[in-house]
Design a protein that fits this description.
The chain folds into 4 domains: about 5-105 and about 500-630, no CATH class; about 110-190, Nuclear Transport Factor 2, Chain: A, CATH 3.10.450; about 195-475, no CATH class; about 635-845. The protein is about 20% helix and about 25% strand. The protein has 14 helices and 42 strands. The strands form 11 sheets. Strands 30, 31, 32, 33, 34, 35, 38, 39, 40, 41 and 42 form an 11-stranded mixed β-sheet that branches. A 6-stranded antiparallel β-sheet has the order 1-2-6-5-4-3. Strands 7, 8, 9, 10 and 11 form a 5-stranded mixed β-sheet that branches.
Length: about 850
């Protein structure tokens, strides 16, 4: 029997026993309409898949690959979608079932009565949305879709609700239980971009390069098959696959026009002080236009060749220079359009089969569109370049609370834009409504920001990474922030996979393991070490990271070992004669073959299955790489004896799970060896909210628990809707209101002297929203009665540093809603309850950094 989880024939849900993955030759060749035959095959295995008798499966998207096809089946109850529940049947070239993955929901009971309607659900979601967009009568814009929601071991009638926010960086969605009115889950669906043109190949470089140092190259805006990237007759960046828009900081985009100034917009929103306070605003806004052109009437070069301008300049007093050419430069618009089209072409190529498989119903890599639209003609995504936002922190400059709160007629007037070091992919579902015309976003969008020190549109690796999010979203549809809870820990494995696999897409396409060669050293600052310049790139695929050391509750970091495993396999084992193209095609087949709630183990198993199909007898080698990195068979227990403090430790919230009660553990447990026994355990950290939405609504009610067990790890076990644990001692961690300092002292009575004594500590979250701890330190006080020797009489330091052959990047990022990304070090995120409401709302909309 093979020991590797990645080579296991099947995987099972630890709670229900339902099969979540099966592999091998699972059927004879299917016949007839293959999508219907695949559905019938899956329904014939209803019992082992845990599909309840009143649920059924309907055919969803069908994806063709070089090795066959993957048919997605969506779970429905009485014709209504069970949200996030699907199964994927993968066929080989002989139409035989060779792989099955499942995120189907096995429920004990279905509560089918919608006791609240869509209007009430939207109103409840609006109360939880920072800066909601309101109509003139004060009612919120928004839309709701009827679904069934998993709540513990039941499914409840519910609503999936979107309420747009004035802050376009927020794309909030809520799962509202229609039987109780409770919010079951919430998400921020932003992932915290003639035909001659100038471009960088692929970036302006590191600190020794840059704009004005590294030359551009002349490229042609043509696809890899020679066709134009532009739609027929287009003289602006209206493409065959996507459209690009410039966030111009002056109305009309022309900074040379007389009296050039920003366009201004006015509207309504609310601030939450425990009660909803109305607020009028008057702000500058982007004028989104397709500014770059090859029309000689506007650009006498007659091509898309523009001069790069970066970095932008600011006035000495911090004001925004609207007339700076870098503020709305057309080069960024063209560069992003060209580079995203290139990686788009590459992904399409990976999906092409050697021969037609579904001649009348075959889906290749179509333009990424919304999950609910995948059976409809896809709409082209958009690129927003030079993106900036009104500087909402300006409202605080006149004191707290802002005087404009007491003058509703005048409203809060903001004069300047603010820049953000960031890039993001923001999908928008079919039913979403974006009411603000100045930031209208009715298609999937790559948002490429103009940062303070670097334009993110100039860094191709960032553009390719954000495209990766779009590709993953429109194929696998992986969850963004649903916690995977196992026996030892809780991790946002879907979000980590989104980031790690997007890194791999960028690296595999560009042939470069470094992410952010241009923006990384600029937003992070360069350093000289004994005359040798070092550059803190955002991330590096060529790493040796492994689980559990790599985990810290921040999705960009938590997926690095997955990206590293794929990169090493491609470089060391599967280059082949085509420079890794076959391996990349297997990677695409993996994307369309996993289910929506796939975790690390399922991705590893499906990729290993694909490797075996394309490279006979190579599956064991692929599985060994996944095992060595802890992508599979990770203990989720970290020995931290004698280690310094852990820089970052993110803990998710119950709203990211199906549990209604029980403390949610962090990304791993900490083990401390205690040969001198243990009289007590001390825990200390600094707290910053990883979920400002939850923090605001809960009045910043952070509630942490320190759980301790001697001799063996703590086990977390689901019992219906409760997450139970077998810790021997559990105490609340005290959090200081003003400083965020957290501490707990846990007396112990069952850790005697002895060489095999171990203490296991789980820091768990029993509060409203996700939490990020910084400088987490666990110390053990030994027993005074133990014989002297070794570490006798000392306090054992049990924190830990994350290492990867270089300094830890201490800059952590805060996504606006529902993630466990951490705040930037020193940002003062542990605000007091009195100031938390306004500060939380305004800081969300202000210039905070979210890593791409």
């Amino acid at each position: 029997m093979l020991a590797s989880l990645a080579l296991a024939a099947a995987l099972y849900d630890p709670t229900t026993g339902a099969k979540t993955l099966d592999r091998g030759l699972l059927s004879a060749p299917l016949s007839g309409d293959l999508s219907l035959s695949a559905r019938a095959w899956a329904l014939s295995r209803r019992g082992e898949l845990g599909l309840p008798p009143d649920s059924t499966l309907v055919v969803g998207p069908i994806f063709g690959t070089r090795f066959g096809a993957s048919i997605h089946l969506e779970q429905q109850l009485d014709g209504v979608e069970v949200y996030g529940a699907n199964a994927v049947v993968t066929l080989d070239e002989q139409a035989r079932v060779v792989l099955f993955t499942s995120s189907l929901v096995n429920y004990r009971e279905a509560r089918k009565t919608w006791l609240i309607g869509d209007t009430e659900a939207i109103a409840r979601a609006a109360q939880q949305t920072p800066l909601p967009a309101l109509r003139d009568d004060g009612t919120p814009y928004g839309a709701a879709k009827k679904v069934y929601l998993q709540v513990g071991d039941e499914v409840h009638a519910g609503w999936l609700v979107h309420v747009p926010s004035v802050d376009v960086r927020l794309n909030p969605y809520f799962a509202i239980d229609a039987t109780t009115g409770a919010t079951v889950q919430r998400w921020n669906r932003v992932f915290h971009a003639a035909l001659d043109a100038n471009a960088y190949a692929p970036t302006p470089g590191g600190l020794d390069g840059g704009v004005g140092v590294t030359p551009t190259v002349t490229v042609s805006l043509t696809h890899d098959d020679g066709g134009s990237m532009l739609a027929p007759g287009a003289t602006v960046l209206r493409g065959t696959q996507l459209d690009a828009f410039n966030c111009c900081t002056v109305a009309g985009c022309d900074i040379t026009a007389p009296n050039a100034a920003p366009r201004r917009v006015r509207g309504n929103t609310t601030l939450n002080f425990g009660i909803m306070v109305p607020l009028r605003y008057d702000i500058p806004a982007c004028d989104f236009q397709q500014w770059a052109t090859n029309d000689v009437a506007r650009h006498d070069a007659g091509s898309f060749e523009y001069t790069p301008y970066d970095p932008p300049r600011n006035f000495a007093d911090g004001g925004f220079d609207y007339l700076d050419p870098a503020a709305s430069d057309a080069f960024s618009e063209v560069h992003a359009f060209y580079q995203v089209n290139r990686v788009y072409d590459w992904m399409r190529k990976l999906s092409r089969q050697a021969r037609p498989f579904f001649p009348n119903n075959m889906r290749l890599m179509t333009p990424f569109s919304m999950r609910d639209e995948r059976r409809m003609p896809a709409r082209k995504p958009a690129l927003w370049t030079n993106l900036v936002f009104p500087n909402l922190l300006e409202a605080l400059s006149q004191g707290f609370p802002p005087p404009c709160l007491s003058d509703m007629d005048a409203g809060c007037v903001i004069s300047n834009f603010g820049r953000l070091d960031n890039a993001a992919f923001s999908p928008v579902e079919q039913f979403a409504q974006i009411p603000l015309p100045e930031y209208r976003n009715d298609v999937d969008t790559l948002m490429i920001f103009q940062g303070n020190l670097a334009d993110f549109g100039y860094d191709s690796t960032v553009l390719w990474h954000e495209f990766g999010h779009g590709a993953i979203y429109s194929t696998a549809g992986l969850g963004l922030d649903r916690l995977s809870v196992d026996q030892r820990s809780a991790n946002n494995e879907g979000g980590a996979l989104h980031e790690g696999l997007s890194d791999y897409i960028s690296g595999a396409f560009g042939g470069d393991p470094f992410m952010g060669r241009y923006v990384g050293p600029r937003i992070g600052g360069g350093a000289g070490v004994i005359g040798v310049r070092t550059e803190p790139f955002l991330r590096d695929l060529d790493n040796t990271l492994a689980c559990p050391e790599v985990l810290n509750g921040e999705v960009h970091d938590d997926g690095r070992h997955v990206a590293g495993a794929f990169w090493r396999a491609r470089q060391d084992l599967f280059q082949g004669t085509d420079n890794g193209e076959t391996f990349d095609a297997m990677f695409y087949a993996m994307l369309v073959g996993v289910s929506m709630q796939a975790n690390f183990a399922q991705v590893a198993a499906v990729m290993t299955n694909n490797v075996e199909r394309a490279f006979p007898d190579a599956g064991q080698a692929m599985a060994a790489i996944f095992d060595a990195r802890g992508v599979t068979n990770c203990s989720k227990v970290l020995d931290v004896t004698g280690q310094p403090a852990r820089p970052t430790f993110g803990i998710g919230a119950r709203s990211q799970t199906a549990f209604t009660s029980g403390a949610i553990p962090g990304p791993y447990q900490l083990r401390v060896r205690t040969p001198m026994g243990a009289a007590s355990v001390q825990v200390s950290a600094r707290v910053g909210s990883g979920d400002p939405l939850g923090g605001i609504l809960g009045g910043n009610q952070t509630r942490l628990r320190a759980l301790v067990r001697a001799g063996s790890p703590i086990s977390f076990t689901p019992v219906n809707t409760i997450l139970q644990n077998d810790s021997q001692v559990g105490v609340d961690v005290a959090v200081a209101a003003m400083t965020g300092a957290a501490s707990a002292n846990i007396p112990l009575t069952n850790v005697p002297c002895g060489p095999a004594s171990d203490v296991y500590v789980a820091i768990a979250n029993d509060g409203m929203g996700a939490v990020t701890l910084q400088d987490l330190r666990v110390q053990v006080t030994p027993l005074a009665s133990c014989p002297m020797g070794g570490d006798a009489g000392t306090t054992m330091d049990a924190g830990m540093t994350g290492t990867d052959g270089g300094p830890v990047n201490m800059t952590k990022v805060l996504d606006p809603i529902g993630t466990v990304d951490g705040p930037a070090i020193g940002c003062g995120c542990g605000a007091s309850p009195a100031a938390g409401a306004l500060l939380g709302l305004l800081l969300i909309a202000a210039l905070r950094r979210r890593r791409p």
